[in-house]
From TrEMBL:
Lineage of the species this protein comes from: unclassified sequences, metagenomes, ecological metagenomes
Species for this entry: marine sediment metagenome
Keyword Membrane tagged: no
Assigned EC number: 6.1.1.7
A Pfam family per the record: tRNA-synt_2c
PROSITE patterns: AA_TRNA_LIGASE_II_ALA
Any single GO CC term annotated in Swiss-Prot or TrEMBL for this entry: cytoplasm
Domain Alanyl-transfer RNA synthetases family profile, first and last residues per copy: 3-539
UniProt KW DNA repair keyword: no
Family to which the UniProt record says this protein belongs: Belongs to the class-II aminoacyl-tRNA synthetase family.
Key words of the record: Aminoacyl-tRNA synthetase, ATP-binding, Ligase, Metal-binding, Nucleotide-binding, Protein biosynthesis, RNA-binding, tRNA-binding, Zinc
Protein name per UniProt: alanine--tRNA ligase
């Protein structure tokens, strides 16, 4: 039986709801009240308070398909995307949870039943891993899980493998709930891996870079609490937290070894082929570029739909980096004009049933992506030309001041410069880059003081960003910024022409101002055929009781 990705998602949810699990919709990619995470990166994030004992639910079993991004912080798959066929920055994680209800036996039995009984995966190609213990940490091997596999499934004991802390012990943080995990891996066959990414090491389970043995499902058994002193105590209520890679299981069930060759990505790949004249599967650099663009378009579309606009700080900068990385790979597909926004309707149609918010907000998402592309495209070709001139003469490396110029003048995120350097066999002087960045931050602090001190605008701006994403309003005041030969700013005239830098005050604004550690909004202000690109929004108080929003 050939299943669509939509059917696979639905069958997973139905399998567990039939076993008493509540279906819980995916949470936002913006973690709620969790400053430790840039993005939701696993299905358990929305249940973190339950595991910590700080919250409860009116159900003890749950299942869902959670949208996730791993592109920053501890979990970062950005650099791997494109170079293989199974890494993604945006992905879905199918999961089932038990909050003090069932434990290891049921989790193992149901995972095996779904994979082999419902979906028909061949049992002789599956392996299970379990925690092998860590003497120095006082942690015993998970012999309980190891014994359950051959006892309640048809998996023979010789295909139950022990691994250490790195692979088979899960911890939420340095303190708090933790426990051993048991992973299910599948052997995709010798043809699935050429060994190039792990030269000298034979293909096997948990070999980094091996495309033959792929992890499908991770079953985490949360049974301990780690104290401040590193001690481990048994939890009074034990929990189960599982995660099954949606794109990976879709590829396995479709009989392919490439996630991007499934119907999850087929509409995007078809649209890209139509736009570029390059079909996926030709091999080489164009396949890498197609994978990067398809993945990054999904990540940006979903993140922006959840409220993460491209900015210069925090999670907004991660999305800006991803979007600009995609634009640069678009050049390898012959796309020199903005094109990523044309993929948004394709994503909305493909994913809108499972995630209605991406379809509902598709027009706004496409506009934000288009505006960001237009801004970057004005400098991308000039930045690429500078890089090529320097790279052609470089003796092994790209100087830090050049890398900073690419960032500050042409908008190149440093990881994009590093990627281009790596493609040429060069390195980037990161110490020099950080020195230049430090100087830039010092100048920015001086600049803010000058701009704040040099305007007088007595009327208050009305903020309407909680009700509207866009608004028709009136420009109250404009100020043109001019800089001396050292880059120091001063406010001059009250009119702006093409190419000018300046500040604008509106009667009403939907732009959120920098406050409380949150970076100010970016976007565009349109007046007739003119476009003022907003790179920051700040709240100023020129007189008691008056707040202005400076764009």
């Amino acid at each position: 039986m050939t299943r669509t990705s939509g059917q696979i998602r639905q069958e997973f949810i139905e399998f567990f709801t039939e076993r008493g699990h509540a279906f819980v919709p995916s949470s936002s990619l913006l973690p709620a009240d969790d400053p430790t995470l840039l993005f939701t990166n696993a299905g358990m994030v929305q249940f973190k308070d339950v595991f910590l004992g700080a919250g409860t639910r009116d159900y003890s079993r749950a299942a869902n398909s959670q949208k996730c991004i791993r592109a920053g912080g501890k979990h970062n798959d950005l650099e791997d995307v494109g170079h293989d066929t199974y890494h993604h920055t945006f992905f879905e994680m199918l999961g089932n949870w038990s909050f003090g209800d069932y434990f290891k036996a049921e989790a193992i039995e149901w995972a095996w039943e779904l994979l082999t009984g419902v979906w028909g995966l061949p049992a002789d190609r599956l392996y299970a891993t379990v925690f092998g213990g860590e003497e120095s940490s006082g942690l015993a091997a998970d012999d309980e899980a190891a014994g359950l596999w051959p006892r309640i499934t048809s998996l023979p004991a010789e295909r139950v493998l022990y691994f250490g802390l790195k692979d088979n012990f899960w911890e939420m943080g340095q303190v708090g709930p933790c426990g051993p995990c048991s992973e299910i891996h599948i052997d995709l066959g010798e043809a699935a891996c050429d060994g190039a990414r792990h030269a000298g090491i034979r293909c096997d389970v948990n070999v980094a870079g091996c495309g033959r043995f792929i992890e499908l499902w991770n079953l985490v058994f949360i049974q301990f609490n780690r104290g401040d002193d590193g001690s481990l105590d048994a939890l009074p209520a034990k929990h189960v937290d599982t995660g099954l890679g949606f794109e990976r299981v879709c590829a396995v069930l479709a009989g392919v070894t490439d996630n991007y060759a499934t119907d999850v990505f087929a509409p995007l790949m078809g649209k890209l082929a139509e736009m570029s004249g390059i079909a996926y599967g030709d091999g080489g650099e164009t396949d890498v570029a197609l994978r990067v663009v398809a993945d990054h378009a999904r990540a940006c579309s979903f993140a922006i739909a959840d409220g993460v606009a491209p900015t210069n700080e925090g999670r907004g900068y991660v999305i800006r980096r991803i979007l600009r990385r995609a634009a640069r790979f678009g050049r390898k597909l012959g796309r020199h004009e903005p094109f990523l926004h044309e993929l948004v309707p394709v994503i909305a149609e493909q994913m809108g049933e499972a995630f209605p918010e991406v379809a509902r907000r598709a027009p706004q998402v496409a506009e934000i992506i288009r505006d960001e592309e237009e801004a970057f495209n004005r400098t991308l070709d000039r930045g690429l030309a500078l890089f090529e001139r320097v790279a052609d003469k470089a003796a092994g490396g790209i100087a830090g001041d050049v890398a900073f110029e690419l960032y500050a003048t042409y908008g190149f995120p440093i990881d994009l410069t590093q990627l281009m350097a790596e493609e040429r066999g060069l390195h980037v002087d990161m110490a020099g880059y950080e020195r230049e960045m430090g100087k830039h931050r010092d100048i920015s602090r001086v600049e803010r003081v000058l701009l704040t001190a040099n305007y007088q605008q007595p009327r208050e701006t009305e903020f309407c960003g909680y009700e509207h994403e866009r608004v028709d309003t009136r420009v109250m005041v404009t100020r043109r910024i001019e800089r001396d030969e050292t880059g120091n700013p001063r406010l001059t005239g009250q009119s702006l022409s093409e190419g000018d830098e300046g500040i604008v005050f509106l009667e009403e604004t939907p732009f959120y101002a920098e406050a409380g550690g949150q970076v100010g909004d970016t976007g565009v202000i349109r007046q007739g055929n003119s476009v003022f690109r907003v790179t920051d929004t700040r709240k100023e108080v020129p007189a008691p009781g008056i707040e202005n929003y400076c764009h």
